[in-house]
Amino acid sequence: MNLINLFRKKGSAPVARDRLQILLAHERTSTGRSDLVDRLREEILEVIKKHVAVDSDKVRVKMERGEAVSTLDIDIEIPTAISGKPDLATAAAKLAEMARTPEKAKATDKKSAAA
Amino acid sequence: MAKVLVVTSGKGGVGKTTSTAALGAALAQRKQKVVVVDFDVGLRNLDLIMGAERRVVYDLIDVVQGEAKLAQALIRDKRLDNLSLLPASQTKDKDALTADGVAKVVGELREQFDWVICDSPAGIERGATLAMRHADVAVIVTNPEVSSVRDSDRIIGLLDSKTEKAEKGERIEKKLLLTRYDPARAARAEMLKIEDVLEILSIPLLGVIPESQEVLRASNLGTPVTLASPQSAPARAYAEAARRLGGETVTMSVISDKKSLFGRFFSRRAA
After folding, report:
1. Which of A26, A33, A50, A86 has the maximal Cβ count within 10 Å?
2. Which pTM was predicted?
3. What is the ipTM of this complex?
């Protein structure tokens, strides 16, 4: 009897809180909340695909809900070179080439002369 | 501009209809034009809580199907001039409630009222998603109890994905209304504390409605608790929540009507 009373004194609310926190952390990843994340993932992928070739498996979108703010974590892995579609590597190469054109070269010459 | 508010919870019996009636009346008392809309087709009860059950002629589905004009279905409250009720149908098939029909009715209500308060049915089925569909603000009614908190979390997920605002990539405003709260039991760790529920659901708090006998009394009388006993603790708590909805900053406190010395001390200090 005394033992039961001792347990009662401690209160059951902390148990409720802990159970909920564990349960909801699990449920948020498997239901409801993932809806938005799925949609975001698809739409982000669409936009990226317009410009860069990416593997759909290499896009991760994660939502983390905090007390004051929630964060959306987007992780996209972009291959350095894939033939056929323009990618970051070719874009970078184009930029480098542009920098080497005569006009640009003159401009830099002038700057260095002024200095 | 009109605001569409949905009162929702997932779980049944936590106080959605009571809160719809009380907040609606409190806003109307503040000179706002308010309509409360019952979305619980087949299990309507808002008419009963508002004391208008014998005045229902046409309902939401009649308006959706074009069998009645909106003005014919709206029931004006006998106590407050600027408070109206749009009842749900008790007998018709709930599939008659279509997305397009609801959009049209809510659109018309927006033009006539300052506040359109949609009383959602329990659950996460079509009735509940239609009730939240056009909302600008969602009031999530939650009891400090595990199953209610879990269901609220689920509803928050739906609000973030199935509403018009969410689909447009906008944010729907979500606010927690904690009902049937007993500060004494929470202090003894017998009940989840306000902070516990806020931490778990992580949405802002609209108000805390204390557990009170006045709520049952008001429903017996068919009068929103804010009108039945305006000085009671739940009525004052609802009135404060209504002021917050209106954009006022009101210091949060747990209003208590316990006549104990401790209760008085606490409520005075909190106020």
Report:
1. A33
2. 0.75
3. 0.82
